[in-house]
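Notebook p. 47: complex prediction with flavin-adenine dinucleotide.
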Amino acid sequence: PISFNSDTMKTTPSLDIVIVGGGLVGGLAACALAKRGHSIRLYEYRSDIRVEESSGQSIDLALSVRGREALKLVGLEEKIVNHHGIAMKGRMLHGKDGSLREMIYDSVKKNCIYSVSRKYLNQVLLDAADQYSSVTLIFNKKLIDADLDHGKLKFIDTNNREIVEVNADLIIGADGAYSTVRRTMMKRPGFDFSQTYIEHGYVEVNIPPRMIDEKHSNKGVQFCMSSKHLHIWPRGSFMMIAMPNDDYTFTGNLFAPLEILNSLDTPEKLVKFYEQEFPDVLPIIGNKQALIDTFFTAKPKTLISIKCSPYHCGKSIILGDAAHAMVPFYAQGMNAAFEDVVLLDELLDHYKDDINKALPAFSRHRCSDAHAICDLAMYNYIEMRDLVMRKSFVARRNLDTI
Ligand code: FAD
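Predicted complex, structure tokens below:
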């Protein structure tokens, strides 16, 4: 972390900021920048996830110290960590023979990472942003074009196709891995960009709670495995992981080459695959039909890693996945994205909210760190599914990996 002398007073007038994207980073950035006294309009492509029955990915996220620091900045750490998050003190490795092996993340200080629901976290962040009178949340508006030098944006209303044009002193691109703000930056000379789709994709598998009394299931439920661990079934070229939820379920993810995932195209093939590779999973899911129902809910999703530089251009900056989407095997995508917001806040503090100085400084400080974490995530992609069973790697576990 960079430390600045933060006893500087804010002298510039408040900025009129437009945030594109109301996901995790957009919500957090809205809170952090409103706290600085700026005026925020946040435009989100989707409808409001706080009122929609179901939208976005349902996957759990592992929250680590980077992310907690950012939540602390906007006063939400306790709400998320203590009232919702489930502490995971280590990994629980599931062998093919049903054997279990525990790997504690931090046996000395007993630090842990927390399983949090993406949707809940996003809802809390939007609610918190909404508390500021200087924040306006606008849904169903998709950015289609931007003039980053002059702070002009063009959105389309996804309901009535109406075009909305707005101006901003500062544009924050928090519009995810397929960012339109970044796409606009890419047209500029000197903007470096690379993306890699890995061979693997993933499918979500829900693991229900165990009924305490099977005859009277309404009497109560409990976790079907230890809720204090991140469960991993490493199998060489593929793996499954599962994290606990606060309703006693687990959200599992099967990460495998897309070729394998796409080949599991009938219930029979799927059940045979699980019987062969994850024999202890079927009993905890309950029955074959439950596995079939959860697995075929959605098509396999792809995984992408994106590096680019710089992260700013004219009156705009990209944060989070828009700047550095990474494969999820280091569990740092959101955590690093949240850290972007902390760094931006520190730099705005340091430069008295002068974006002409703060934005270039952000790129200078952040690009190489973010590229490094993208590389580490790619490395952990191999380790988690394969090397994780080798004893020599046990000593190198720490809280920066899942
Ligand atoms: P997003 O969450 O993608 O939000 C972008 C928002 O912008 C969306 O709401 C979208 O609708 C909106 N948007 C997009 N385009 C437009 C447009 N043109 N106009 C307006 N709005 C737009 N990270 C962790 O730290 N820990 C984990 O355990 C972890 N697990 C993961 C597991 C998987 C399978 C995956 C895929 C990722 C995981 N991540 C994890 C990474 C994490 O999900 C991302 O890093 C995080 O969601 C980034 O947040 P974001 O706000 O930048 O982007």
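Notes: The radius of gyration is 22 Å. The mean pLDDT is 91.
Next step: compare against the earlier run before touching the bench.
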